[in-house]
Design goal:
With 93 residues, the protein is mainly alpha-helical. The protein has five helices and no strands. The chain starts with 6 loop residues before the first helix and ends with a helix.
Length: 93
């Protein structure tokens, strides 16, 4: 299914017709970020089958994340840099 990313479409699909906006928005981001449990994924999957607003918002957010991820260059950092950051964070705590 093609997803339109124009501003008008996005504004009209921001869960405005959803009866569980807060819960759905939280689940949507947990699913997209890979933080949802299998049960949450199942519940959200059923939700987007029955709520066009949630389905459109999911499609939009997923498309945006896919574009961003595809544009990021993954580079290795020296282990000494990571260790130094961890040391400094622990020192501040």
């Amino acid at each position: 299914m093609a997803v339109s990313t124009n501003k008008t479409t996005h504004r009209t699909t921001e869960l405005s017709d959803c009866t569980d906006q807060d819960l759905c928005k939280e689940m949507l981001y947990r699913v997209i970020d890979g933080q949802a449990s299998s049960r949450e994924e199942e519940i959200f999957g059923r939700k987007i089958e029955n709520c066009m607003s949630c389905f459109k918002q999911y499609q939009y957010e997923k498309s945006m994340k896919d574009v961003i991820v595809s544009k990021i260059d993954k580079k290795s950092v020296p282990s000494s840099l990571a260790e130094d950051i961890i040391f400094k964070v622990k020192k501040l705590a």
